[in-house]
Amino acid sequence: xxxxxxxxxxxxxxxxxxxxxxxxxxxxxxxxxxxxxxxxxxxxxxxxxxxxxxxxxxxxxxxxxxxxxxxxxxxxxxxxxxxxxxxxxxxxxxxxxxxxxxxxxxxxxxxxxxxxxxxxxxxxxxxxxxxxxxxxxxxxxxxxxxxxxxxxxxxxxxxxxxxxxxxxxxxxxxxxxxxxxxxxxxxxxxxxxxxxxxxxxxxxxxxxxxxxxxxxxxxxxxxxxxxxxxxxxxxxxxxxxxxxxxxxx
Length: 249
Hints:
This protein is of the alpha/beta class. The chain has helices at residues 30-42, 64-80, 99-106, 128-139, 158-168, 185-196, 213-226, 229-244; strands spanning 12-14, 45-50, 53-54, 86-89, 92-94, 116-120, 143-147, 171-175, 202-204. The chain has a 6-stranded parallel sheet with strand order 3-5-6-7-8-9. Helix 7 crosses helix 8. It is globular and about 50 Å long. It starts with 11 loop residues before the first strand and ends in a 5-residue tail after the last helix.
């Protein structure tokens, strides 16, 4: 596996962010993107993987080709604003029945040119196409990452199915905001349980707009306080650099 990205300055990397303006339910315009970057830098971040929703039913223009172009455009706008903040293209793939066919036609929305693919789903059960799509990715050498499993609670056999896909090789990414209770009691409890069980490979902001950013930063501070600063670095600095950016540890 080759990674064209050179080593980044020391600091945190956010792997899940809706920072590109005007393409989904994230930042509405450039001013919001710039505000988020400024606040993230103050919190110790040096870069973000831009992961707009990839779900053709709602966002038909959000293809890997377009996301790469939009990310490059926003990166140039940051440079024009004298910001050294680094961006990479990605996507948050909504798992849906025709996801495999869609990827065959449009490409796989990988994170920062790696083989990692950020995925989510919102059904109230665990339909067979979820596991089938994750298996299809794994069989072709991709590394699926299931976003915020603590927020997604299908009614039947969720705990066992989550354990099963982890055994298949799927990684988990938790959301900092779930640490604060703002996502509800159940995500608040589950995120801590999965952290205690050491089941997350990454934690991330899942940042959308500036008005919700402070709660996400609060969640990051809670993780550092309740667990350890070293765990925070593992999940938000070392893991993104090693597994996605391909930096040697």
